[in-house]
Amino acid sequence: MTITQNEGAHVQVDAGTGAGGEHTKGTPGFLTIDGVSKIYPARRSGDEPLLVVDDVTVEAGSREFVVIIGPSGCGKSTLLSCVAGLTDFERGSIRIGGRPVTGPGTEAAVVFQHASLLPWRTVEQNVAYGLKLRRTAGKDEIAERVHKAIGLVGLTGFEHHYPHEVSGGMQQRVNLARALVVEPSLILMDEPFGALDALTKETMQNELSALFGRIDRAALFITHDIREAVYLADKILVMSARPGRIAREFTVPFPRPRDRTITETPEFEDIVRELRLLLHPKEAEQPG
Amino acid sequence: MTEVRTVDPQASVIGTTASVAGRRRKVASIREVSRREARLLGAVGLVAVLLLWELSARLEWINPLITSSPTGVVEAAVELWQNGTLGPAMLSSAKLFAIGFGVSLVGGMIIGALIGWYKRANAVVDPWISILYAAPRIAFLPLIAVWFGPGLLGQVVVVVMIAIFPIIINVASGVAAIDRSHLRMARSFLATNHDVLLTVALPGAIPAVASGVRQGLMTGLLGVVVAEYFLGNTGIGGMIFMAGLTLRTGQAMLGALIFAVAALLFSAGLKAIENRLDRWRV
Question: β-strand A99-100 against A50-60: which pairing, if any?
Fold first, then answer.
């Protein structure tokens, strides 16, 4: 087993780090998606096979927050699933920390679109689930890391609740904590806030943004929400629909840590406008 | 029962009438019955029927020799208890049920989990399970008597034959029906097949297992009655059968009542267990 390049892959909760807003991209080329294509075979004879992801190339540094944005059905979730090793692909290669992805691995952890919590496990047991499956940590270490992750996502006090007893936003926090607790060097997020109400969504975005100021992780985040993309991303990749191609790449210049005030700046609105033009050129005149 | 009346006629929807195109109509209003009221009404219904039955028999509107009466049933119970036949008969039935249902429960869960999990095993045995589940299995009774004899062994085989299939079928479908998103999530954390079975498939099957056990309990009781009727005439089932032949209708009613009470008790007990197991269910 090779050592991952991401040396700082430990949760740093102390307030001292990152206070100066120094957020670098980390080691470049930590995640490389190189010319990946995904074709779904024809369902019935006579149908054409469906090209959902077409020759996509992405690069992310070991501390970079990359957002892929695109219309529904553009193949962005499929791409994330390929990076997670949950879906195989026909052409190209994906490497995390230099190691090619051939299946689910220990480098990445997924925050799913629907929380996918096990309803018979409490919040605490759900957070511990992935870490336990990996069988790398002892009982005490699991308990300690779970406790820390629950604190990190603001779920303290809800450890013994069952998923149906907490709100949708809290379920997504559990989903996030379950991924964080395994201390992956890359977090894959598949529209994690898509099903939340607008207020909860904003809170979650704020907290995720703050969290990423404090921990050394790379993130690949899928969304179709333009403002969410600009608020969270270091780099935005715009994906076009059918077949899914990377149409354009944006670098978001705002320093970290960020807060909501950046969303009121003209620079923010400029990026939002440009993205909207790209994503739905006909409706670009609608007010932001 | 208090009735809430709102002051604002617009806000009071319950039981109002409306006028549509010149015609009056009563707007839908589904009244809820409180728990206490429901219990009271149920008790009233029970007592009323029993009283009517007793009265009809006393006044000889119906022939008490054929229909018996509530007091007839009580008299039968006292008599059978005093002559020492009721206790042993109940014990005998309880033993048959315990063995037969126990075997069905353990066997049904194991077989169900195996065929729910191993698709190839399922493919092999599925035709047989389907045939046996669909068939009226009581039809095999004479064969079982021939193969296993009319004693306890044959009776247990009858109970198992009747009770095990609902358990197998429910457990198998519960284990097989893994939530795809849970499977995906588990895979993303590198779960093995064994992990998925233990942490996703089996816990997820609990509701299906519970309904299998419920059906198994009820069909198991039926199995006891059938086995005792036709193989050996033992226990409460045998008592009902013999009483029917000799027109001791009070005894026959008593036997049926004992099975009914047993079924209700099992049902309530299972409900209590389900509630404890199922705190996570919405």
Answer: unpaired
For residue A2, name the pLDDT band (cuts at 50, 70, 90): very low
Q: Which of A99, A107, A101 is nearest to A89 (CA)?
A: A101
Query: Going by C-beta distance under 8 Å and a sequence separation of 6 or more, which residues neighbour residue B3?
Result: none
**Sign of the torsion angle spanned by Cα atoms B230, B236, B241, B245:** positive
Given phi > 0 = left and psi -120 to 50 = alpha, else beta, which region is A235? beta
Q: Are residues A104 and B188, on separate chains, in Cβ contact within 8 Å?
A: yes
Q: Report CB contact under 8 Å: A104, B189.
A: yes
Enumerate the residues of chain B whose CB falls inside 8 A of the CB of residue A84.
188
pTM above 0.80, yes or no: no
The structure tokens 């529209």 sit at: A191
The size of the A-B interface in CB pairs under 8 A is 55
Q: Is A109 in contact with B279 (Cβ distance < 8 A)?
A: no
Q: Is A162 on the interface with B (CB under 8 A)?
A: yes
pLDDT at A281 (0 to 100): 65
Burial class (CB in 10 A: 0-12, 13-18, 19+), A199: exposed
Residue of A nearest to B190 (CA): A104
Q: List chain B pLDDT tens, one digit each, 282 residues.
A: 444 554 554 444 555 777 887 888 888 877 788 889 999 999 999 999 999 999 998 888 888 888 888 888 999 999 999 998 899 999 999 999 999 999 999 999 999 999 999 989 899 998 998 888 888 888 888 899 899 988 899 999 999 999 999 999 999 999 998 889 999 999 999 999 999 999 999 888 888 898 999 999 999 999 999 999 888 888 999 999 999 888 888 899 999 999 999 999 999 998 888 888 777 765
Between positions 89 and 128 of A, the ones with CB within 8 A of B are 104-106, 109-110, 112, 114, 116, 118-121
- What residue in B sits closest to A164 (Cα-Cα)? B282
Closest Cβ–Cβ partner in A121, A130, A164 for B189: A130
Contact A114 B281 (CB under 8 A): no
- Residue A127: name the closest of A82, A159, A79 by CA: A159
Contact A109 B189 (CB under 8 A): yes
- Best mutation target, B179, B181, B183, B185, to test chain A (most A CBs within 10 A): B185
Asked if pLDDT for residue A22 goes beyond 50, the answer is no
Length in residues, chain B: 282
How far is A176 from A154, CA to CA, in rounded Å?
11
Residue A93 in tokens: 């290669």
CA atoms within 13 A on the CB side of B98: 6
